[in-house]
Amino acid sequence: MDNSKQYNLIYQLDGRPPLKVAVPLGLQHVMAMFVGNLAPIFILTGAMSTPEAPFPPELRIMMIQCAMFVSGLATLLQLYPLKLGIIQVGARLPIVMGTAFAFVPTMQGLGAKLLAEQIAPVEAMGYVLGGVIAGSVIELIMGIFLKPLKRFFPPLVVGAVLITIGIKLLTTGATYFVGGAGAKDIGAGKYWLVGGIVLLVIVLLNHFATGMLKATAILIGIVVGYIVAAFSGMVNFDTVTSAAWFSVPMPFMIKPLFRSDIIFPFFAVYVVAGLETMGNANGITISAFGREATAEEISGGIISDAVSCAFAGVFNVLPNTAFGQNVGIIAMTKVINRFCIAIGAIVLILAGLFPKIGAIFNAMPNCVMGGAVITVFAMIFLNGVKMVLKEGLDDRNSLILAITLGLGFGVGNLSDSVKENFPAALHFIFAEPVAAVCIVSVLACIFLRPDTTKKATEK
After folding, report:
1. Are residues 344 and 26 in contact, defined by beta-carbon separation less than 8 angstroms?
2. Alpha-carbon distance 151 to 154, whole Å?
């Protein structure tokens, strides 16, 4: 095969382009998602730390290591599915998997609840991982019975949930930007300076750069901020020095624990994760093939998502889902070759075998991560707004949205001391704002959505 034909393979789903072409294209996907893959771990372990009982840094390094390892394996499963009878596990599309931001507000709320009960941070993380494993059953059911369930989750529901996730995360991003909740001098000028430099680099590259520079703007911003913080004496490299060079990620390093009041809020967020995977699968097929994703592709993608999330919980780390930024790269470059994406997945797996990489990220000051994620969280909110506006805000949709945010977010955001007086059934529904918004939105759409078949007949 001549060079031009080999190169053209990158625009085809199958085939094996030469490594000199495949490696940089695979690395581009890794660089685009690397930070987003690790940020939820920083946020959750930070939320599960108290001055009296900080989350152990060696466990956070281990979780970072496992996150890279699991994301690589989860991506390979999407690329090269397993066939279990009539069920396909994996979309057979160039979907890149990473640690999901959608779960962060729910896990933060549950973590705060567990710490308030005087449960130690590591044990609290065990209950969260138990929820990760048990909750994935809902997404598995959703993937298997995709067709009959799809009508219960219109874009208005997804949009309302994304708005709620964005609102919840905005405060988290801002807190990290000014030093993090654990910082004794939170809000000090040095944090504003470093976070501001990271943000400025990202904005400038996104606005003026093209190609790889634009695709890796967040990573470059973090590297610049990290260097500035290091020269400012804000980085402690002791954990990097003490971390091992090589280690195989092991399951159950944090023992999963199970409680019904912790598991239930995960159900609604897993539905959202399934819908995000559905949207990302369609984003790939529409931009690359000019068609919507088939039922088998969507179902396989969601089932693979559920399996990967349960696997992540077993391997001490947070749920995985399809990453939208990587869908954006595919839409921009039209590179859909599975072998190229698989190279990136293998890089992630290899990175997960070297704890020093995790230790380097663990040493990064909160303000550096804050400068990187503060706009990412705002974009989650804006994506939800766009989805709602695309559906239109007629009287019926406005009423559904008002009930959803007023009742779901309003009541779901009340303090736990107030919720203790709720009846048991309502306590489960409103345990946490993201889950509450999803449940209320689904119910509101079922009871208030106009009869579209009747309208079609009248026309």
Report:
1. yes
2. 6
What is d(CA 264, CA 446) in angstroms, rounded to the nearest whole number?
21
Q: Kindly provide the residue ranges of all beta strands, DSSP E only, lying in 207-252, ordered along the sequence.
A: none
Pairing between β-strand 320-322 and β-strand 97-99 as defined by DSSP bridges: antiparallel
Token pair for 245: 């060079």
Amino acid 81: pLDDT:
93
Tokens at 345, concatenated: 């997945």
What the block records as the tokens of 149 is: 């369930």
For the ranges 104-118, 210-224, 431-445, the one whose mean pLDDT is highest: 104-118
**How many angstroms separate the CA atoms of 102 and 79, rounded?**
23
**Number of C-beta neighbours around residue 16 at 10 A:** 14
Q: Is residue 232 scored above 80 in pLDDT?
A: yes
Q: Is the dihedral of CA 398, 402, 404, 405 positive or negative?
A: positive
- How many alpha carbons fall within 13 Å on the CB side of residue 400? 28
Write a three-state SS string for 296-339. Answer: HHHHHHHHHHHHHHHHHHHCCCCCEEECHHHHHHHHHHCCCCHH
Residue 322 vs residue 280, higher pLDDT:
322
What SS3 state is found at 186? coil
Nearest 5°: phi and psi at 260? -60, -40
* Residue 448: other Cβ atoms inside 10 A: 12
Tokens of 137: 């059953």
pLDDT in tens, 4-30: 666 677 777 888 888 877 887 777 677
Question: Is residue 333 within 8 Å of 156, Cβ to Cβ?
Answer: no
Give 458's pLDDT tier (boundaries 50, 70, 90): very low
Instruction: Give Dmax (Cα) for the chain.
Output: 73
The predicted-structure confidence for 117-169, as pLDDT tens digits, reads as follows 889 899 999 999 999 999 999 999 989 988 777 777 777 877 887 788 778 77
* Spatial contact of 436 and 409, defined as CB atoms under 8 Å apart: yes
Q: What confidence score (pLDDT) does residue 360 get?
A: 75
Q: Kindly provide the b/e burial profile for residues 72-102, where b requires at least 16 CB atoms within 10 angstroms of the residue's own CB.
A: bbbbbbbbebeeeeeebbbbbbbbbbbbbbb
Check whether 411 has a pLDDT greater than 50.
yes
Residue 114 one-letter amino acid: L
The predicted pLDDT at position 78 comes to 95
